[in-house]
Amino acid sequence: MELRDNQKQLLRTLPGVDTLLDALLVECDSKTPRSVLTAAARQALEQLRRAIFQDKATEVDLAAALTLAQGIVDKKMRPNLTQVVNGTGVVVHTNLGRSLLAQEAFERIGAISNSYSNLEFNLKTGKRGLRYSAVEELICEISGAEAAMVVNNNAGAVLLCLDTLVRGKEAVVSRGELVEIGGAFRIPDVMAKSGGILKEVGTTNRTHLNDYEGAITEETGLFLKVHTSNYQIVGFTKAVSIAELVDLGQKRGIPVMDDLGSGTFVNFGDYGLPSEPTVQQSVAAGADIVTFSGDKLLGGPQAGIIVGKKEHIEAIRKNPLTRALRIDKLTLASLEATLRLYRDEAEAVKKIPTLRMITLGEEETKERANALVKALSGLPVTCTLLNLTSRPGGGSLPLLEIPSCCVGITMEKMGASALEKALRASQTPIIVRIENDTCIIDTRTLQEGDNALIAKALKTIAEKRP
Ligand SMILES: *Cc1c(COP(=O)(O)O)cnc(C)c1O
User: Fold this and answer.
1) Which atom from ligand 1 is nearest to the alpha carbon of 157?
2) Could you tell me the pTM of the whole model?
3) Which residues, 6+ apart, have CB-to-CB distance to 464 below 8 Å?
4) 180: helix, coil or strand?
């Protein structure tokens, strides 16, 4: 490649890697590993060299290289998995970590992570114990089920149950319930993986009990009902209730499994929201197996919970897949603490962040919005209170919009999408949504201390503005 004179001139100005490294050593925290500094110096110089070749470079002296390298060092030294502020109003936000743990639950993680525990040790007998025993009794107590076990997540729970119950047999599922959850989890595919044969019945909008009945053959191993977590079929519709299905199953000797997806122990109808089917209802209706997530509406850690009849749970425990889907001890510790809160529902709704946020009244969101506006006073931004809606998220209550008071933020000389991007690039990233060319912060999903983080981010953005 032929270099022009001005490019040659700039390349000559570029400091050497040792010079830059010496400067970095002076400027950076002495605890920064030398390997990080060296890598940052090399990367900074490489970026500047590329900029020169592409005629995009202006300043390439030591000061410019140092600033660039320091930025790279900062980025390398910050954890990749990091706290963010969820201003989206989507409570169980799958991309932002789903549920936040209750204080009680995350404290248990600390307690169990740096000490030995009785994870698989029976303290009474001094012999090997079952890791599920930490939570089985509690789950049975809350749900009314005979037996329970837990695995890594609900996708795993569904796979494990199908693998145990229908390998080589037919599972009858309504065409209206062939869900895709996202992340490549589709009921027909999971069925295929488990070695079960999917037998679709009914139509997309209407499935009757006699559709299930007509599908029964020698090969039928299961009736599977799946919660349509992230969509709703409206209009001329008919689905068979779990109770009706259990009734038919019992007459014909076919077990019934209910994948509740989100799964909740709390009836949201009691809080002025639409009712989701509860785990207790499904168990009371007589479902043989019920599966649900630990970190959707339950508001605990990522886990898959399986409850149901003893004989099935025992068969599931013996399945070698169980070992591959094993729940980790830190999850178990926080799940146990979360479950304990459910012994008193009022307590659970108050202390489990997911439940608290979903049931938060509009008045409270308004108070929060006013507090946020106050925290931003003195900054060069314009705040507007907007009556919008939040969503529960996480494949639950798919159409529900919860009235919520939000704060619209605009900054002069900065469009909404530039501001959104700058907020997202903040030291503690602030995730917002854009509506009508305005950055919207929904206060429903804000946590204690978030107002100060938002103020700090906006202050920095305003100062750096051209
Ligand atoms: C979310 C969901 C799953 C998967 O649960 P994860 O906890 O995400 O693994 C399975 N089935 C249904 C119906 C769901 O909504």
Assistant:
1) 9
2) 0.93
3) none
4) strand
Alpha helices in 28-178 (DSSP H): 34-53, 62-77, 103-113, 133-143, 154-166
Say yes or no: CB of residue 291 within 6 Å of ligand 1.
no
Q: What is the residue range of 36's domain? A: 5-77
Q: What does the pLDDT read at residue 1?
A: 65
* 340 and 432 part of one domain: no
The reply to whether ligand 1 has any atom less than 6 angstroms from the CB of 290 is no
Nearest atom in ligand 1 to the alpha carbon of residue 187 is: 11
What confidence score (pLDDT) does residue 231 get? 85
Q: Read off the pLDDT band of 3 (50, 70, 90).
A: confident
Query: In terms of residues, how long is the chain?
Result: 466
Contacts of 293 (CB under 8 A, 6+ apart): 153, 154, 261, 262, 263, 302, 303, 304, 305, 394
Is 358 touching ligand 1 by the criterion CB < 6 Å?
A: no
Question: Would you call 43 exposed, middle or buried from its count of C-beta atoms within 10 A (0-12, 13-18, 19+)?
Answer: middle
Domain boundary among 351, 384, 416: 351
282, 290 contact by CB (below 8 A): yes
Considering the domain architecture, whether residues 166 and 17 belong to the same structural domain is answered as: no
Say what the pLDDT of residue 69 is.
Answer: 96
Going by alpha carbons, the residue nearest to atom 15 of ligand 1 is 261
- Pocket test of ligand 1: the residue of 293, 297, 331 to mutate, having most ligand atoms within 8 Å of its CB, is 293
pLDDT above 90 (res 399): no
**CB of residue 327 inside a 6 A radius of ligand 1:** no
Question: How many independent structural domains does the chain possess?
Answer: 3
Q: Pick the residue whose CA is nearest to atom 5 on ligand 1.
A: 154
pLDDT attached to residue 50: 94
Q: How far is the CA of 463 from the centre of ligand 1 (A)?
A: 44
Amino acid at 90: V
What is the number of the ligand 1 atom nearest to the C-alpha of 158? 10
Q: Give the residue from 298, 333, 351 where a domain finishes.
A: 351
Taking residues 193-217, what's their average pLDDT? 95
Instruction: Tell me which residue has tokens 């007459």.
Output: 251
On average, the pLDDT of the chain sits at 95
Name the residue with the closest Cα to ligand 1, atom 11: 261
Residue with tokens 């320091």: 70
The model's confidence at residue 46, banded by pLDDT at 50, 70 and 90, is: very high
Query: Cα dist. 160→190, 292, 294, 435 in Å?
Result: 10, 13, 16, 42
Residue nearest atom 3 of ligand 1, based on CA coordinates: 261
Whether 52 and 114 share a structural domain? no
In the predicted model, what is the mean pLDDT of residues 120-140? 95
**Is any ligand 1 atom within 6 A of the Cβ of residue 177?**
no
